[in-house]
Amino acid sequence: MKELTSFEGVKCANCATPLEGEYCHHCGQSVHSVLRPVHGLLEEFLETVLHIDGRILHTLPPLFLKPGFLTLEYFSGRRVRYIAPFRLMFVLCLLSFFTMHLAADVISSRAGQRHQQDLISGAASNFDEDHNADVVRKDLARKLASLEALRESNARPGGNPAIAAQVERSEQQYRADAAQRLHDLGVPAATASAAKAAPAPASSADDDYSDKPSDWTVKPVSIHWLPAFANERLTVLDQHMIDNMHELFHGTEAQRTQARERLITNVFSELPETMLVMMPCFALLLTLFYLFKRRLYMEHLIVSLHSHAFIFLSLMLITLAGMLSTWLRPHAAWTGWALGLCQGALMLWLPVYLFLMQKRVYRQGGLMTFVKFWLIGWCYFWLLTFVLSLAAMLGLAH
């Protein structure tokens, strides 16, 4: 009664309804003003964060350890103490793709460093697979351009001057090996000597290529039932895809590195959006396979959201374990073995969890659940392949 009498005679500022509490029972507006001191906003922020943290502690452990528990709790109406399914899935999706993006960047960076080391040491000077003189010349021009770019990058402030001497030795080795390959192919000695003495091309030029990106011009897209601006946009995306593929497979080392980094960034930026398509599609699969259970589509959608939330959480933990193993293995070999074991356990728990979740939520026998689980997984695999391929194409088209 104390709370009710404290608002006696007070009316809602929005609809003038007499208040009986902190919120208007007619329009829902709070009695508290948004115009408040900064310390009031800070208190509200801390309260919100602590409330979310409390829900995280109630949500993540059962999500990971109790298959189907959160879904059955939602079906039973007990929802306040848990994070909403869509918010939970979306946050874990962003975190998992962010983690995998970091891991992909680390792998790409190490691959680039290994290639750079092979380039400097001369380990990449093999021309034996070049089947004619033109291919040998293009291969030599590409490697010399990569060496020139490496020389320029280390000539800047902060570079390593000792690499210049290594680059010089590698350049002479490449020229000698190319000249020897030309001799083996029966090219006249004068031409082989010219290849050995030819100056290194500028790193920004790719003049020895007959297939420059500008020459890989696509034909304008013309789909009669699409408007002109859509055809123009598709043509631009197609050209971007061709240019990126050219740089990725036929460019200099600097161009390949930039194209690889660009592709990784673009694909991971597209994945969260494309993965959102999987939620309703997976719910539709569940609806079709459990048609006689007479459940609403929204129930299947909640199952889909919780399933994907668990998948994203597992992928994030697997990726983190792999990154931690790579970082700790040089310092303590046993940590790599232990974390590898954790990764294996997480990978095994992933299908087992999803099977147990499907069995507990839909309450069918083990054999029937296994058959439906296998069929749904087969359909989902091809759907996921299509979505990931679409994300890769979108990444190339930027």
Automatic annotation (TrEMBL):
The source's domain of life comes to: Bacteria
Does this entry carry the keyword Metal-binding?
no
Q: Where are the transmembrane segments?
A: 275-292, 304-328, 334-356, 377-397
Which key words are in the record? Answer: Membrane, Transmembrane, Transmembrane helix
Q: What is this protein called?
A: DUF3667 domain-containing protein
Its organism's taxonomic lineage begins at: Bacteria, Pseudomonadati, Pseudomonadota, Gammaproteobacteria, Lysobacterales
